């Protein structure tokens, strides 16, 4: 029997039926840009979930690209995440990926939200042009809602000095014309947009442009802009007016799972998938040696998929920490392997007469000593908030020894020749 999901009853998601919505307070809000256009895998959803859960504003605005494509099941998936995670009402804005049944799910794509002093107008320019409904809504809201501060939100940025991924100037002139005609031009405080997977600020018509596309999508370089980390943006009122701050999404991307049984299941699944990655890689290597090149390609494809399964379980379980914490955990594991696990294992293998196993354990122990040295050096840099120095790394494909700096003429652990020592990318 086909599984049918129960219908979702929106509580946090605001279905817009009235084009002008009055709220008790609009003194602060949180903007998440482009959470879904790169797919809705566990890594992306963990970023999105953290942004939703961390929001400090009285409402959340998602600045478009909720989904990778406008299929019904993608909308249901993002809806479920919002309803389970968001602490405050969530307003949505249509992006260029939000095709299909967007209006069926969320209602009007052009609307305004206001309190006694602030008017937030959401415009639909998802096709790189402002819809007639958006311009009409802007005229109605700006002309009829008394406000001190006007904030515009849209998916594709207005003209700016950083990127051509913006609406044409002729389109922005339509907005300017409406603002001048309604007497709202001097009230413009912010123009907020997504679409560009970065973060930058600019000035436009007396207001500040904030472009934020980092709540899930892959960050992309923009010339002249420092590449940001994944983030969201808080907007809030102060005594002197509106202000904003970019907030980086931090690790763990999700909080550790409180239910110990579920946490254990995720750890077991992670460990199983990690072993599957190596198992399929070994099978691929063996198949290739036997001339079964197409079977090897299949095994490598499956190994690649198993890696992402492991990653999803790792993120979902909240096991990923900050870089320095992760480095220290790995140092502790390396120290244990050097001092305890491998010496004890090698000694036992010797006692039972298995010299091959003893040699494998000892080779691994010697390689771990190099790993510990490298990690110790890295720790000093991370403790100062810096990246480590650029270095060339090499791996012996015979015993797994690691080298750095210059490629050695021969592996000093197992004696393998230089053609068995591979440069790491």
Going by helix content, strand content and strand pairing, the class is alpha/beta
Distance between the termini: 48 Å
Give average pLDDT, whole number. 92
**E-strand count:** 15
Shape: elongated
Give the fraction of residues assigned to helices: 40-55%
Count of alpha and pi helical runs: 9
Strand content: 15-25%
Following the backbone from N to C, one meets helices and strands in this order, namely EEHEHEHEEHEHEEEEEHHHHEEE
Radius of gyration of CA atoms, rounded to a whole number: 27 Å
Which regions are unreliable across 5 or more consecutive residues at pLDDT < 50?
none
Q: Could you give a short description of this structure?
A:
By secondary structure, the protein is an alpha/beta fold. The chain has helices at residues 42-54, 72-85, 102-106, 132-144, 169-182, 260-289, 293-316, 323-351, 355-383, and strands at 20-22, 28-32, 60-62, 90-92, 111-114, 118-122, 149-153, 188-193, 199-204, 207-212, 231-238, 241-248, 393-396, 402-404, 421-423. Helices cover 40% and strands 17% of the residues.
Question: What brief labels describe this structure?
Answer:
single chain; 425 residues; alpha/beta; Purple Acid Phosphatase, chain A, domain 2; 5-stranded mixed sheet; 15 strands; 17% strand
């Amino acid at each position: 029997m086909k599984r049918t999901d129960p219908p979702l009853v929106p509580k946090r998601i605001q279905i817009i039926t009235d084009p002008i919505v009055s709220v008790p307070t609009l003194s602060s809000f949180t903007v998440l840009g482009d959470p879904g256009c790169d797919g809705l895998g566990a890594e992306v959803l963990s970023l999105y979930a953290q942004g939703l859960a961390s929001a400090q504003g009285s409402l959340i605005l998602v600045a478009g690209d909720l989904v990778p494509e406008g299929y019904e099941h993608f909308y249901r998936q993002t809806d479920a995440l919002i309803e389970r995670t968001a602490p405050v009402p969530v307003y949505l804005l249509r992006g260029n990926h939000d095709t299909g049944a967007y209006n069926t799910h969320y209602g009007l794509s052009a609307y305004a939200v206001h309190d006694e002093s602030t008017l937030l107008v959401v415009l639909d320019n998802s096709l790189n042009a402002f819809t007639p409904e958006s311009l009409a809504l802007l005229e109605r809201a700006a002309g009829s809602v008394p406000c001190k501060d006007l904030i515009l939100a849209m998916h594709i940025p207005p003209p700016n000095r950083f990127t051509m991924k913006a609406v044409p100037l002729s389109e922005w002139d339509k907005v300017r014309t409406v603002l001048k005609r309604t007497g709202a031009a001097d009230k413009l405080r912010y123009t907020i947009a997504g679409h560009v997977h970065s973060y930058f600020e600019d000035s436009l018509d007396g207001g500040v442009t904030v472009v934020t596309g980092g709540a899930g999508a892959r960050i992309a370089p923009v010339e002249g802009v420092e590449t940001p980390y994944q983030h969201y943006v808080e907007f809030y009122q102060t005594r002197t007016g509106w202000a904003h701050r970019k907030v980086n999404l931090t690790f763990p991307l999700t909080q550790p799972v409180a239910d110990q049984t579920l946490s254990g299941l995720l750890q077991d699944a992670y460990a199983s998938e990690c072993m599957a990655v190596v198992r399929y890689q070994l099978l691929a290597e063996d198949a290739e040696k036997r001339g079964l090149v197409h079977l090897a390609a299949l095994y490598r494809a499956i190994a690649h998929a198993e890696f992402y399964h492991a990653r999803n379980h790792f993120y979902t379980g909240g096991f990923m920490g900050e870089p320095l914490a992760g480095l220290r955990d790995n140092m502790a594991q390396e120290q244990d392997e050097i001092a305890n696990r491998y010496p004890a294992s090698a000694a036992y293998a010797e006692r039972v007469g298995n010299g091959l196993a003893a040699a494998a354990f000892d080779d691994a122990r010697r390689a771990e000593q190099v790993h510990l040295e490298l990690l110790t050096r890295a720790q000093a840099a991370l403790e100062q908030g810096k990246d480590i120095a650029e270095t060339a790394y090499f791996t012996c494909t015979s015993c797994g020894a690691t080298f750095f700096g210059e490629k050695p003429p021969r592996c000093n652990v197992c004696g393998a020749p230089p053609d068995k020592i591979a440069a790491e990318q």
